[in-house]
Amino acid sequence: MKFRAFPTATAAFLVSTAIAAAQPIVFVPEGSANSIRMVKADTGETVKQITGVEAVHGLAGAPGVPYLVAGSYAETDRAAIAEMAQPETVSANDHEAHHAPKESEPIGPSDAGISILSVLDATTGEIIRRIEVPGAVHHTAVSPDGRFAVATHPAGDGISVVDLTTFELTAFVQTGSTPNYVAFGSDPGVVYVSNTGNGTISEVDLSRGIVRRNMVAGDAPEHFAVDPEKMTLYAADADAGNVLELSLKDGSQLRSFAIGGTLHGIDLSDDRAALFVAGRGENKIATVALSSGDISFAALSPEPYHLTNIPGTGTFYVSSRSEPLVWIVNASDLSAIGEFPVNGEGHQMVALP
């Protein structure tokens, strides 16, 4: 393990040059504030506040896909959902038909409550559909081709699968105890799910609605990141304080990186040469140079929580679990070069060009 010093002036120049070349918009779910904040990537300046998304925790999108999918961590009953205001872009007839009683058996566990996936226009942030799913949603993912949206249901031990061409819930797949995070690799028909309750990562075939295999991933894997080109997955074994590198070819563990303390958010750099980790338990962030395995640390307080790389800017965002703010962090030297306030708590953030 090595601690490195960085040339601050050089790093600042590189970051400012990169930011000038590309300005993504970042979407920040605000949890208990029932809103999503759209901000400019370089400054965190608010562009728009999206309301009407109750207890939003999971939020996902993909480059070139016209939708974002937001999941609610709150449950409600069918009567309350029927009273929801229809999105402006949905006709009254379509809205009524969507909430009409289904003739077939509901998809998912019979004893599950009802939660909502909100489908948003990725450009304007407008809510265009609300989809009922079985149970509180933790995290979400959108397939690279824009066909599927997936949501994890920790209390239901499985995932919901939504077809974004029809906006219909098509399957519920049991993956394992307490599914937490979900992400895609190179195949848009295959998704990976961390099961925190039994220490596994499930590989799910979405077209067939089956778990193809389970990979052992420490004691309690939570957030993870996938490198589709190298066919590797980096999972935070959160309570153990380690990041595990798994081969997606055979499921074997290739390396383990000791970060220390309780971990949370994790993401890869643009070139996938570095891994960024939020160390919530010890008020620090870390970067792992994947070629050498060297780990560098920087203090960040209080409680660094969700973490998202911001493509093309040389920065990543980190939210705080205990304060209503998000830090803008220089990826080169791990210095906090800015911050901005949020309402509620910053959860699964999404950066889109």
What does this structure look like?
The strands form seven sheets. Strands 3-2-1-28 form a four-stranded antiparallel beta sheet, with no helix packed on it. The chain has a four-stranded antiparallel beta sheet with strand order 4-5-6-7, with no helix packed on it. Strands 8-9-10-11 form a four-stranded antiparallel beta sheet, with no helix packed on it. It has two domains: 1-24 and 217-347, YVTN repeat-like/Quinoprotein amine dehydrogenase (Methylamine Dehydrogenase, Chain H, 7 Propeller), CATH 2.130.10.10; 61-211, Methylamine Dehydrogenase, Chain H (7 Propeller), CATH 2.130.10.10. It has 353 residues and is mostly beta strands. It starts with 7 loop residues before the first helix and ends with a strand. The relative contact order is 0.15. It contains three helices and 28 strands. 7% of the residues lie in helices and 46% in strands. A hairpin with a 4-residue loop joins strand 21 and strand 22 (284-289). The protein has helices at 8-21, 78-82, 92-98; strands spanning 25-29, 35-40, 46-51, 56-60, 67-72, 114-121, 127-134, 140-142, 148-153, 158-163, 168-174, 179-184, 190-195, 200-205, 210-216, 221-227, 232-237, 242-247, 253-258, 266-268, 274-279, 284-289, 295-299, 304-310, 315-320, 325-330, 336-341, 350-352.
Short account of what is shown:
The protein has 353 residues and is mostly beta strands.
Task: Give the CATH level 1 class of the largest domain.
Answer: Mainly Beta
CATH topology of the largest domain: Methylamine Dehydrogenase, Chain H
Second CATH tier, the architecture of the largest domain = 7 Propeller
Cα shape: globular
> What is the CATH H-level superfamily of the largest domain?
YVTN repeat-like/Quinoprotein amine dehydrogenase
Class computed from helices, strands and strand pairing: mainly beta
- Which regions are unreliable across 5 or more consecutive residues at pLDDT < 50? 1-22
Amino-to-carboxy terminus distance: 35 Å
DSSP strand content: over 45%
* Extended strand count: 28
Average pLDDT confidence is 90
Helix content range: under 10%
How many separate helices?
Answer: 3
| Strand arrangement in the largest pleated sheet | 3-2-1-28
Largest sheet: 4 strands, antiparallel
Number of domains: 2
What Rg, in angstroms, do the CA atoms define? 20 Å
